[in-house]
């Protein structure tokens, strides 16, 4: 990278992570602190240790891996898991560790678009492959869920291309229909794969 480009990407990356931290961490820390206080008051020692494990994995944004080892999200046992909802935040943060790096390396919008489409295809393929054999893995593992975040990245990149916007003035309306079609197709495919 030329020095001015490198400095710009460092500033953008730093700003991104600072804003992300400011939006997520304060409320998460408060929630975990209050949960610890509740646990110290009402839980037995073994239960408190169990709670600490969930807080550790959740605070490190790796709770999806812990939950994968312990419980099927779709089973009734999942209802008793503390911080079950943090699985999605963990996947999101794991994605955002790598995404700014890819964005900085592939500075050309043309190559970045091809990369995003390629990664969406691979991630979606992993998701479909795992759904037929390991539904929990398809649900919790990041590489089988990244395609959802990458679709958002793809749409963002398309909007940043001036020629694309000029050729398609109704793109904002079409993108809403496209998003709805994706959601509907996911529901249909899920029913087909799971046989429900």
Calculate the mean pLDDT score and round it.
Answer: 81
Count, helices = 9
* Model regions low in confidence, pLDDT < 50 over at least 5 residues: none
Binned, the helix content reads: over 70%
Structural class: mainly alpha
How much of the polypeptide forms β-strand, as a percent range?
Answer: under 5%
**End-to-end gap:** 51 Å
Give the number of DSSP strands.
Answer: 0
Cα-atom radius of gyration: 20 Å
Order of helices and strands: HHHHHHHHH
Principal-axis shape equals: globular
The biggest beta sheet reads:
none
Can you characterise this structure?
The protein is an all-alpha fold and 196 residues long. It is built from 9 helices and no strands. 80% of the residues lie in helices and 0% in strands. Helix 3 (63-70) packs across helix 4 (86-105) and helix 5 (109-131) runs antiparallel to helix 7.
How do you describe this structure in short?
Helix content is 80%, strand content 0%. The protein has helices at 3-42, 45-59, 63-70, 86-105, 109-131, 135-140, 146-160, 162-167, 171-194. It is globular and about 55 Å long.
Keyword list:
9 helices; mainly alpha; 80% helix; 196 residues
Element layout with pairings:
Layout: H1 3-42, H2 45-59, H3 63-70, H4 86-105, H5 109-131, H6 135-140, H7 146-160, H8 162-167, H9 171-194
